[in-house]
From TrEMBL:
Classification of source organism: Bacteria, Bacillati, Actinomycetota, Actinomycetes, Micrococcales
Gene Ontology MF terms in the entry: amino acid binding; dimethylargininase activity
Domain of life where this protein originates: Bacteria
Entry keywords, A to Z: Hydrolase
Annotated catalytic residues: 172 (proton donor), 270 (nucleophile)
A Pfam family the protein falls into: DDAH_eukar
GO biological process, one term: arginine metabolic process
Recorded family membership: Belongs to the DDAH family.
Protein name listed in UniProt: Amidinotransferase
Length: 286
């Protein structure tokens, strides 16, 4: 006898995205990027538009930030900061090629009426900070520093859980770990075990004993770079085993092809920054 599946419910998200108008691969700051491989910007835009259409069909509120010329990675909005409990903790990029994106996203946050906390520590926003229940899983190893974990912990009334990444092809936490249900008390995640060091694996296994362990094949098409509303999990179209794992848990996999953006080492979640309003406001609305 297997345990009955929990009842899944969708809560549409508010997200910020950036059209890949200037997308290309002109430098290499992760293992996926090879400037000698040609990119097709029109195709990237078409695929990204498909992602926007998917979100709108799920009832998401999609805001757009103006793309800036000369910033080909600005499409990866997840890296623009972390918005939680009405506070926007700004990004401070590890690589000079992306540093101008930090102030651009910070300006958007201020314009949206969020309290902006300007980071002094190097961090790449939701690329490395994932909110699950009352905790924030926080990646380090390649981009965001341990100092940023401490800085974030001093700003929010939440547990910050450090996790260390060890593989350069899974350089951001959101490439190796997906939040499937962020609701406090019913947290569910999926992750790629080989992307983490031993201590981090123990933390993950202790906190989430029933987590989905993704296959190497699915992780390699950025299956874990996913966005969930608690029911629908928007993920890579060709991550077939992952889709089956999700369905077996009562989630509805929604596949989107972002193969052009994968040339820059990005997928669904990378293109998506969640705009979480204050806890009290959300509770009042409930
Ligand atoms: N080319 C980008 C970089 O290396 C990809 C960012 C992907 N974003 C993410 N949230 N994992 O910075």
């Amino acid at each position: 006898m297997t345990a009955p599946l929990p009842e899944r419910a969708a809560t549409p998200l508010s997200v910020l995205m950036c059209r890949p108008t200037y997308f290309t691969v002109s430098y290499a700051i992760n293992a996926w990027m090879d400037p000698s491989t040609p990119t097709d910007t029109a195709r990237a835009i078409r695929q990204w538009e498909q992602l926007v259409a998917t979100y709108r069909s799920l009832g998401f509120d999609v805001s757009l930030i103006e793309p800036l010329p000369g910033l080909p990675d600005m499409v990866f909005a997840a890296n623009g900061g972390l918005v939680v409990d009405g506070l926007a903790y700004t990004a401070s990029f590890a690589h000079p090629q992306r540093q101008p994106e930090g102030p651009a996203y910070a300006e958007w946050f201020a314009g949206a009426g969020l309290d902006v906390a300007h980071a002094s520590a190097v961090n790449e926003g939701e690329g490395d900070f994932l909110v699950v229940g009352d905790a924030i899983l926080s990646g380090t190893g390649f981009r965001s520093t341990e100092d940023s974990h401490a800085e974030l912990a001093s700003l929010v009334d939440r547990e910050v859980v450090p996790l260390t990444l060890v593989r350069d092809d899974y350089y951001h936490l959101d490439t190796a770990l997906a939040v499937l249900d962020a609701t406090p008390g019913q947290e569910e995640i999926a992750y790629l075990p080989s992307a983490f060091d031993q201590d981090s694996l123990e933390v993950l296994r202790g906190r989430y004993p029933h987590a989905i362990e993704a296959s190497e094949e699915d992780a390699a098409v950025f299956a874990l770079n996913a966005v969930s509303d608690g029911l629908h999990v928007v993920t890579a179209a060709d991550a077939t085993l992952f889709h089956a794992q999700l369905a077996a848990r009562g989630f509805v996999p929604v596949g989107v092809d972002l193969s052009e953006l994968l040339l820059a080492g990005g997928g669904v979640k990378c293109c998506t920054l969640e705009v979480r309003r204050p806890r009290e406001a959300a509770e009042r609305a409930a």
